[in-house]
Amino acid sequence: QTLRALFQYKPQNIDELMINAGDLIYVNPAQQSDASEGWVIGTSHRTKSEKEPNVKLNGEAHNLSMSRSATNALSLQNAALRRAVLVMRHGERVDQVFGRSWLQQCLTADGKYYRADLNFPSSLPRQKDGMKQFECDPPLSCCGIFQSRLIGEALLDQEVTVSYVYSSPALRCVQTAQHVLQGLKLNPKVRIRVEPGLFEWTKWEASRAIPNFMTTAELLEASYNIDTSYRAHFPLSSLVPTESYEDYVSRSSAVIKQITSACPSKAPLPPFFAFPGVPGVILIVAHSSSLASLTRPLAGLPSRDSRDFAQMVRKIPSLGMCFCEEQKEENKWQMVNPPVKTLTHGANTAFDWRNTILGD
Amino acid sequence: QTLRALFQYKPQNIDELMINAGDLIYVNPAQQSDASEGWVIGTSHRTKSEKEPNVKLNGEAHNLSMSRSATNALSLQNAALRRAVLVMRHGERVDQVFGRSWLQQCLTADGKYYRADLNFPSSLPRQKDGMKQFECDPPLSCCGIFQSRLIGEALLDQEVTVSYVYSSPALRCVQTAQHVLQGLKLNPKVRIRVEPGLFEWTKWEASRAIPNFMTTAELLEASYNIDTSYRAHFPLSSLVPTESYEDYVSRSSAVIKQITSACPSKAPLPPFFAFPGVPGVILIVAHSSSLASLTRPLAGLPSRDSRDFAQMVRKIPSLGMCFCEEQKEENKWQMVNPPVKTLTHGANTAFDWRNTILGD
User: Fold this and answer.
1) What value of ipTM does the predicted structure carry?
2) Contact by Cβ (8 Å): A144, A176
């Protein structure tokens, strides 16, 4: 049986093997009686030639002659129960760049939308209550779309298997989820589960009223790939404006527990392997506060003090990520490095050629 | 004869007509004896219904019944000689985000390139003198590629016809030109003319030596769409390190004059129309300083004081643009608004989940 590694694994003992994502590992079922509990013995097909220490094997490399491959005794931590949760913040939102009055900047005298700067999206989706609603539920900027797509492509490069996608009902989160799935080439295979319980702390984002989010029908009409069979744990009607910090913390803690228990944890094969039946990553696209409020209860950490919380949340960039892996013991989770790197880029400022170039 | 408008034209007299890019205009050659010099008389097929004041016609709309169309006497400034030059700065370069030591951040212990942050390009092209050369000639970041592509798509939206593309020999400029052409869907139809005379003021960018730019053969091998028949006005060997401001100003002034005289100015058809034979836009992709040093001599303006110059250049963002249009009088150029809007976006900061989320 030949398996393909899903994640990198760094050896922690001399009888363990360095595994890169994409490595092909031969596992002989007859040999497994020698393996200690939770481990398997296998052989890596990866060449060990000094010249190509980082070579990654794919389907074709499988046909390399065995003389170029090295054979290594291999122990793999058997996490047949291992799951992972990737929590990410949405991409750049238009009001982050153009301020609260962004929509006014984009309306013609007769109320039509136009693109006042090339970072505004080329069009807005239809909303039953009119464009005005987008002031409380702003879309991604073009830069936000670029960021989301890039992260999706990077996850694909790392051969991360995403099996479930949950999103806050905020338009920017649904859009981010959609563009990440496009980058992953999983659109429309994996559908987005819109979970109102993932919305931002309402004290920050809904001080007077919960925004009129786009309905499932509207999202579908705008070509968003929504899972219509999904039943939310927290219906929209359960969200209240200006909730207390304690209420937000307990809502977040409840929703992450409900999400993880709704995604199957039993699987028949060893860890690291992208095979049907192996639980893939549960992707959750939500808000900057979600990176702490969803992962800390999962990892068994206490919630942050409400004052520290605001300060911490300000440091989280677009597409900032936290990654939790389930441990050998079921429902024990640990925060580890996300499967892809950070995304760091500069700002691009407004430019007035008349003042700058023509002026004397 | 039905013509399609290439640019918007705002009427300046009551016998002139508002024209949007894409409008179809019927011009009867028999009527032109009534037109004053430099103008033509024509009829707009655009509907004037109050409900759709901004409707833009395309090929299909051509078939609208005449009852929905309005007929207007039309005067068009006849700029049969009119050309336009669009000077743009390259996109975000990797060292702008990651500093001068960017390449060291991306090398494994055995000297292989890897992507230390997702804004680094996924690979570097081959260079005969090795990767080290890219330290003096850095590539675009992924964000820079996004910016370039977006501007190309916006030019296409505005139906701007680009007929000639010139680029500085700096890799970031050639890459920007290529991605703008891809956005314009003109790749590989329009080929890039690499002109060393367009390189940055060497006092800033080449204080000790002129960088080892990629050769034409290397650029072609890396799939850049280079015009191999182009003979540079300023060969690479003519560039000297640490040139004086006066030398830079006179080089820039000479190169823009040579470029405009090398691109045909005579054309048989009226202005605004994207027809074969009508001169399209001459696109020049170069450096922030080029926005002033190329356009000011073209528009007959004196060069800036060298101290003001440095201050002005710092204000120019990625893909900052200046646009010069030739006037009725040949070789008289005026700076006007570029055909597309500015691009303004925010920065994305580095993020350390361990310190931010896990720390207490």
Assistant:
1) 0.78
2) yes
